[in-house]
From TrEMBL:
Gene3D superfamilies: 2.40.128.20. One of its GO terms (molecular function) is lipid binding. It comes from Triplophysa rosa. This is Fatty acid binding protein 11b. Belongs to the calycin superfamily. Fatty-acid binding protein (FABP) family. It comes from the Eukaryota. Residues 7-24 form the Cytosolic fatty-acid binding proteins domain. Keywords: Transport. Pfam families: Lipocalin (PF00061). InterPro entries: Calycin (IPR012674), Fatty_acid-bd (IPR000463), ILBP (IPR031259), Lipocln_cytosolic_FA-bd_dom (IPR000566).
C-alpha cells in the first residue's frame, strides 16, 4: 500500500552514503553536497494513480512523478540520466535506476513509523532514515 508512504518526511540519519555515491559514479563536489544535505521528502498520490516524490534540500529540489511499474526518465541529484521503475513489493517501495549498463536499487519501507531507505549499488549499501514531518 503506497498510502503508508504518503506524507512529509525529514531525514534524521544517513549511514555509508558517501561510499554509495562513489559507487554510482558521483563526483567529489556532488558527494560533498549530498553529504551535507538533509533532505525533506514529500510523497503524494493523485486521483489518477500518479505518485509524486519531491526531495528538497538547501542545494536543490527534485521531483519525480510516476505510476507504479511504468518505466520513466529521471535525472538524479548528481545529474545522472537514468531509466527508473518504481514498484511495490512486500510493503516496500522499490526504485530501480538503470543507466549505461549499471543498476542501483533504493528500497523504502516503513518500520516503527520511520521510513528506512536502503540504497544498494553492487556490494555497497547505504541506509538513510526519515521521520514523519507532519
Amino acid at each position: 500500500m503506497v498510502e503508508q508512504f504518503v506524507g512529509k518526511w525529514k531525514m534524521t540519519s544517513s549511514d555509508n552514503f558517501d561510499e554509495y555515491m562513489k559507487a554510482v559514479g558521483a563526483g567529489f563536489a556532488a558527494r560533498q553536497m549530498a553529504n551535507l544535505a538533509k533532505p525533506s521528502l514529500s510523497i503524494a498520490m493523485d486521483d489518477q494513480g500518479f505518485i509524486s516524490m519531491k526531495a528538497v534540500t538547501t542545494f536543490k529540489t527534485l521531483e519525480i512523478k510516476f505510476k507504479l511499474d511504468e518505466e520513466f526518465d529521471e535525472t538524479t541529484a548528481d545529474d545522472r540520466k537514468v531509466r527508473t521503475t518504481m514498484s511495490l513489493m512486500d510493503n516496500k517501495l522499490i526504485q530501480k535506476q538503470t543507466w549505461e549498463g549499471h543498476t542501483t536499487i533504493i528500497e523504502r519501507e516503513i518500520q516503527d513509523s520511520k521510513m528506512i531507505a536502503t540504497c544498494s549499488m553492487n556490494d555497497v549499501v547505504a541506509v538513510r532514515t526519515y521521520e514523519n514531518d507532519a
